[in-house]
What does this fold into?
Amino acid sequence: MKFKIIQRIGIMAALCILIQAQPVYAEQITNATEIEALETENPEETELEEQPDTPEIPGSTEESEIPEQPETPEQPETPEQPEQPTQPEQKPTPQKPKVPKPIPKAVNGLRTTCQSDKKVLIQWNKSKGAVKYKVYRKKENSGYKLLKSVSSTNYTDKGVQYGKKYRYKVVPLNGDKKAGKAATIVLNNRQAVNITSQKYSYTQMTTDMKELKAQYNNYCEMEQIGKSVNGRSIYDFSIGNPKSKKSLLVVSTLHGREYICSAVMMKEIQYYLRNYNKSIGGVVPAKALQNMKIHYIVMANPDGVTLSQTKSSKWKANGRGVDLNRNFPAKKFKVGGTKGAEGYSGPKSLSEPETKAIADLTQKLKKQKKLCGVVNYHAMGNIIYGDCSSSRISKGTKTMYQIAQKLTGYKQAVDSGIQTPGGQYREYVMYMLNLPSITLEIGSSAAPCPYWQYESSFQKNKLVVLKIANAL
It folds into this structure.
């Protein structure tokens, strides 16, 4: 409404001005009707439509004051906290770099012991840095197969077959499972001593001994005790407990042409080893040999054997023509005979390297272990020498003789009474060392004995040594 009044006042003021400037025209416009007509003719000054009054909102007028906000009461000042002591900055513990563990040393000392035809014990020495070992087995014409990982230094394979060949491999591992250098070993789980002809040679014997040692490591030992005139090794092949307190010595083939004895002894050794944990003839070798070790000098005269097999079949002496069974000490050693195939005593007792080696071992066993007796093997005649004139050793000699005679059926040999030159080994043992001793002469025909007598001689003698060892 106010806007309308103001608008009209403005129009009237404008008209007054016009009237003053144009009197004539002013006269003509004298009443309100005309004024309204003018207002109507001028569209720019048309009255605005009246708007309804806007209700007043209390306190919303321009003049109304914004009510004062009540003052916020002052907050009491927070008392200052005492300054906390500064904690030293915790530095993270540095992680030590992981130090790789050293690679294990190579496996060494790998060995096998056939405990039966179906079970073999594999052993090795501890490798520095190793915490575990992987054991592999390889059969013929196949690859390696892992048997087991073990922390010990041994493993028993119960899955072998007799007559088969195996190769074992042992790999050392450290804590990081890094492998060191492996070791391998071949096991021929089969018959090592195969005598297929009459001439059982020194070379074949040596090979068979090594094979038996590899196959039955814990049950036997092979040691060189000397060399022959021509440089061939003389071996002490022993079976039984190395820590035993008693021993028995077997000496074979002092005469070159009597190599049937070496063949029979090797078959006998194999028989004991293969059946070490079984009862044979009522005796279990493992038990009988727990406190008794048997030492074999299988081929005491390797040069003489070689000469008999290659040059002169009747040759008995060693490589320089000395009869070894005339070269041992005697109470009355007399030089005699002629250098050659047989009978020569040598210039003095123990002049030959072979007899020296045998005598040294005999005395060593007597001093270091209780040597209970000596068994000698010669050929031929199927007889036993068991006589004894010393009361100190007669009981032991008689026991040995009776066992041998019962098993073989051999007759007692009759002493000819003929005085031979030099000194014989059995007499040296009995009357110089005071040890019981017997001598068996095997084979029924003149040496060298024919091949067909080998097996029969073995069958008659295979239990003689074991039962004597068990009895002494």
Q: What stands out?
A: The chain has a mean pLDDT of 87.
